[in-house]
Amino acid sequence: xxxxxxxxxxxxxxxxxxxxxxxxxxxxxxxxxxxxxxxxxxxxxxxxxxxxxxxxxxxxxxxxxxxxxxxxxxxxxxxxxxxxxxxxxxxxxxxxxxxxxxxxxxxxxxxxxxxxxxxxxxxxxxxxxxxxxxxxxxxxxxxxxxxxxxxxxxxxxxxxxxxxxxxxxxxxxxxxxxxxxxxxxxxxxxxxxxxxxxxxxxxxxxxxxxxxxxxxxxxxxxxxxxxxxxxxxxxxxxxxxxxxxxxxxxxxxxxxxxxxxxxxxxxxxxxxxxxxxxxxxxxxxxxxxxxxxxxxxxxxxxxxxxxxxxxxxxxxxxxxxxxxxxxxxxxxxxxxxxxxxxxxxxxxxxxxxxxxxxxxxxxxxxxxxxxxxxxxxxxxxxxxxxxxxxxxxxxxxxxxxxxxxxxxxxxxxxxxxxxxxxxxxxxxxxxxxxxxxxxxxxxxxxxxxxxxxxxxxxxxxxxxxxxxxxxxxxxxxxxxxxxxxxxxxxxxxxxxxxxxxxxxxxxxxxxxxxxxxxxxxxxxxxxxxxxxxxxxxxxxxxx
Length: 543
Prior knowledge:
nine-stranded mixed beta sheet; GMP Synthetase, Chain A, domain 3; Rossmann fold
């Protein structure tokens, strides 16, 4: 296999040539064959050209799951454009940073975000072309309408190489500003080829994709996995607890990806005689489920739950093998490509100096494989920190057993894992510290009933000030995406600090400090139904 020539355009077109009349995209009650899907992708590519987009240009998408998203994205990829997918829960400042940092030349947004992008365009000198998936406001092109009118005459083919960037995946970072992971055509094709192998998929199998297309999971695993299996992607607007199983049954789904919160919701739902009435064989998700939850889901719905470890920086990593007895709580072993000519994945646990640690010793997990990022966009310092001598330093602490199975311990960096999203504690702290009644804040993750974490903000008020928890929540809600807003607010007189004036977060997590009164804002402040629409990614995004 020539890794240098792998690209998503050829990957899709070759699958379509072999299966022109087979369904590829299923959306609600509509099915689109491979041939029809590729025709829509070609048309979208023509629209991007008409809008002035060229190879290497970044294009911001802020849109929910829909067929139009897939057509536009893969049309962009066909001409060598680069997707910058923005979380649809972001507020103006958050979205603006991604557009400006990526130097996006165009944007495609849902109609409800046009106000954002009208404002963003005033401060983003590179942003020229604005379009919508739906009725367009003044200054925006209706992308769907443009597809119906564009000249579809064949155009010169753009040369695409394996190392060409296909997507910038922005991840949370401890600096408070997201990092733009440069993912390549080669990595997405390798993932699409390997995902069916990992999941034991058959040709023609159907993948249910309810996690958002602005995350790497749905981009690389669901979309590319469907192409690799020469099967179909059953696309849903979002995760719906009440609609999930009816949709899965109706469309005869064989595989789906999940985040921990989804599995907990399934396990706690009212049992039904029809629970096992489905064609799902395997579900892949992170983090590893507690053994009792896993067994309940597997037995009740008659499927196999597989856990692993991946990141925005690498779609390979670790995976539980499906052909040997499982070990509770593990992330699995290195996951490989089915073609032996592709370099195998390696994984180690190292100390702070990069020296290997033995079984049972906790250190940082580092991996090496054929599907790693090129680096962080416009960020050579953090690229050098993450990529060293061909190894990706994950920022997660782990240990391995004598058999080479790996186990997650904690995050080396201050990232909070909430409802499938990664939240930078520093970003939330900076938002709270900007409140006139706040002298200092520290933000930590605390255990959640949904397997990941809730956000707790520990706040020192300004002398003479008495901010309320509700006041601070309202302040954050106006400035941050909903999933970043703290659930708990705790008022204290002082936050423990190191001699070098750094917050002692380990003491905050252990409760070893002068505690104050903690207010539980409750789930009403964050509305789980909205948060679960976001997909998994870590330290980056977990995949």
